[in-house]
């Protein structure tokens, strides 16, 4: 709703949000599982899952949308870190 209110929401953001939700759709995370988010300098968001406390070798998804990538990072660490 915020992106729409400030005029920065496009079809690309809509598709990125759909992909983000799809990545988590059928997932269940047992105790000790981790979700790893990696943000590239160009704005892609890589999402990886670990169910055994290891660092995954392959990503579950990569979403090419800088606005979504920055929003996810900000939701985790806050606007001022």
UniProtKB/TrEMBL annotation:
It catalyses: a chalcone = a flavanone. InterPro entries: CFI, Chalcone_isomerase, Chalcone_isomerase_3-sand, Chalcone_isomerase_sf. Gene3D superfamilies: 3.50.70.10. Pathway: Secondary metabolite biosynthesis; flavonoid biosynthesis. Residues 1-81 form the Chalcone isomerase domain. One of its GO terms (biological process) is flavonoid biosynthetic process. Signal peptide: none annotated. Keywords: Flavonoid biosynthesis, Isomerase. Catalyzes the intramolecular cyclization of bicyclic chalcones into tricyclic (S)-flavanones. Responsible for the isomerization of 4,2',4',6'-tetrahydroxychalcone (also termed chalcone) into naringenin. Belongs to the chalcone isomerase family. This is Chalcone-flavonone isomerase family protein. It comes from Pyrus communis.
């Amino acid at each position: 709703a915020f992106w729409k209110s400030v005029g920065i929401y496009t079809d690309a953001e809509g598709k990125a949000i759909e992909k983000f939700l799809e990545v988590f759709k059928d997932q269940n995370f047992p105790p000790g599982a981790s979700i790893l988010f990696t943000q590239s300098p160009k704005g892609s968001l890589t999402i990886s899952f670990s169910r055994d406390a290891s660092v995954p070798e392959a990503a579950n998804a990569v979403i090419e949308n800088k606005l979504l990538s920055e929003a996810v990072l900000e939701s985790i660490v806050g606007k001022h870190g």
